[in-house]
Amino acid sequence: MSNSRNLYLWLRTFIFRLTGKSLIILCPAGGFILLMLVAPEAQAHPISITWVDAHVTKTKARVTLKITPEDLYLFYNIEPDENNLLKTKDLLDALEKHEAFLLKYFFVLDIQGKRLEGKIIKITPFKIEGQGVPMAEIAGKTATYVLLFDLDEPPEILTFYQNFGGDEMTLPAVMIMSVTQGAFDQTKRVELDKGMPYIIRFSWDGQTPPQVASRESLRDEDVPDIEKAMGISSYSSIYSFIYITDFEVRHEILIPLLTLETWFTIPRKNPDLLEIDEQDAAYVMLSDFFSKHNHIEIDGIVVKPTVQRIDFYGLDFKDFAMQAERRAVRPVTARVGAILSYSTKGAPNKVKVAWDMNNWRVHFMRSVIYAYDQNLKHVFCHPTPNFEWTNPGREPLPPITKITSPAPPPKLSIPIAALAGLPALILIMFIMKAASCKKGHYLTAIFVLGILTAIAWPYGRLEVPDPFAPKPTLSDQDALAIFGSLHKNIYRAFDYRTESDIYDALANSVDGELLADIYLKIHKGLEMQEQGGAVSRVKEVKIIDGKKTTLNKTGNENSYDFGYQCNWTVEGTVEHWGHIHTRVNQYEAIFSVRTRKNAWKITDMQVLNEKRLKFQTRLRKM
User: Do strands 562-576 and 537-549 pair parallel, antiparallel, or not at all (unpaired)?
Assistant: First the structure.
């Protein structure tokens, strides 16, 4: 393509975008002549423009594309003759070539991102009079192609976009598009640049018209309210959710891949597909990017984030209670979800969030902040790039302490070593009598043995239960109170987030030998596999019934130690992307409760039964 052609195209596009009107630019040998054409919209096109109307039924999508001779002039390097005409034969040849062009570069994708195969069922050529079309009229005539796409089932979502000219084409190509469904009015016409998706959601209840779900095609005032955005209903908006808790500040960002790639491009072999290994290879790059542009201060200290997850989602990912299936995604419809966690080491007093991801495409980010029970909103943009939160007076969680056990029952202390002198004395007396010893020798032997008994009295003692003391008892109510506190403390320990902190808290209620085992059992019970193994926060632990039992292992029958058989439920929640995922599990187990260094401890747990009662997902209310 010649330099004059390139300049021609760029000038027309620039002036059209600036004024909304087209230029007719003639290129005689002597130079350029620019004439402003104030004409009807049908004759005022940017370069290159294709008009597209799609009609969707339950079984088919019928797409009508209108092009001008200008498009063929662009894509096939048709040169005007000496009379400045595009010849009829050249246009008809290019029109035939354009069939394969449209089938290759016009895309219709289903909800899984699979490209639908289309076929051209009708062509209506240009109406040309004479030998050809004058260059001054190349934007004023149209030819029509009708493409048909078969649908296996009534579509929930279809994505339309164009890549006219392929990756080699550097000049702009624009598609003006609208969609109709049944008797409903067409969606608003939108202007789509190359690679820009037009995502339409369909309902087949006969009451709901097709809905546009890509913000590139909407004016700013059409962006849904944040309450609606809670449902992640717009496939090209940026979503931000900030959680402030006792142990972390968490920032979750959901961003279209095309928007993300206005900062950098994720390397991939196929520009139309991002494979799983390419997603994995981009993890470090994405982690660095999100960490760099999301600064958080907690109580005046800048805290570095831990990147918990980076996921890639397709259009069909709509149940945020489930873990997304790892698979290749199409960049034109994919979204990237990043979860960044900032440790607080306790209830924060002040939190400051700074966001600087503005560029030529992204001018603001709406965010929802969940600070304990507070629900707040903030728009991060140039005038308000920061969000600050001050603790309204929430007290920190009380520490988990040991539960003191009662004093041990009284015991008798028997001086075994000292009492052993009595049979020794009798034996010596017998020997001395047999030997006819003098009386003084008897007295000396008694004196020596008395001294030895006095010396041995504090040593070699045996402690035995006092048979005269009342037998210690523990009422069922006392046992329930003791066990209930220990049981509650076990789950409270999982309010902490690091393994060492959890172990330290558990050690106040669980004997050392059982620590590792009970940590693994409780941790596994709190994991939500639907959320990629995320550990849920304990919302409520409720003991349904229980009774004191004999110990599972032999213990001191005169001690206060006891067994407890318990049936209880645990309600845990995981919050992501403005959704609350709640799971309720029920357990039955037998516990051993013993005194250890003047404190009650659970020393054994045998799980008898466990089952899931409920799994529920809901939006957190504003």
Answer: antiparallel
DSSP 12-50: HHHHHHHHS--EEEE--TT--EEEE----GGG---SSEE
What dihedral do alpha carbons 558, 560, 565, 569 form, nearest 10°? -170
Is residue 430 very low, low, confident or very high in pLDDT (cuts 50, 70, 90)? low
Element spanning 283, H or E: helix 283-293
Residue 56 burial (CB < 10 Å; 0-12/13-18/19+)?
buried
Mean pLDDT for 144-172 is: 84
**Tens digits of residue pLDDT in 27-61:** 433 333 343 333 333 333 335 788 999 999 999 99
Sequence-distant (≥ 6) Cβ neighbours of residue 610 within 8 angstroms: 525, 585, 586, 587, 588
The upper half-sphere exposure of residue 370, i.e. CA atoms within 13 Å in the direction of its Cβ, equals 22
Q: What's the CA gap between 615 and 436, in Å, rounded?
A: 95
In the chain, where the domains are located: 47-222, 239-390, 411-465, 476-619
Name the class of domain 476-619: alpha beta
The DSSP-derived string for 488-524 is: HHHHHGGGS-SHHHHHHHHTTTB-HHHHHHHHHHHHH
The whole model's pTM is what? 0.66
